[in-house]
Amino acid sequence: MGAVPKIYLTPAEYLAFERQSEIKHEYFRGELFAMAGASRQHVRIAVNVTILLGNQLKRRGCDVFNSDMRVKVSPTGLYTYPDLVVVCGRPRFEDRELDTLLNPTVVVEILSKSTEAYDRGEKFAQYRTLESLTDYLLISQERPHIERFTRQEGGLWLFSDSIGLDAVMPIESIQCQLPLAEVYDRVEFDESSSTPKLSLVKEEMEVYAPA
Question: Containing H/E element for 56?
Answer without folding.
Answer: helix 40-56
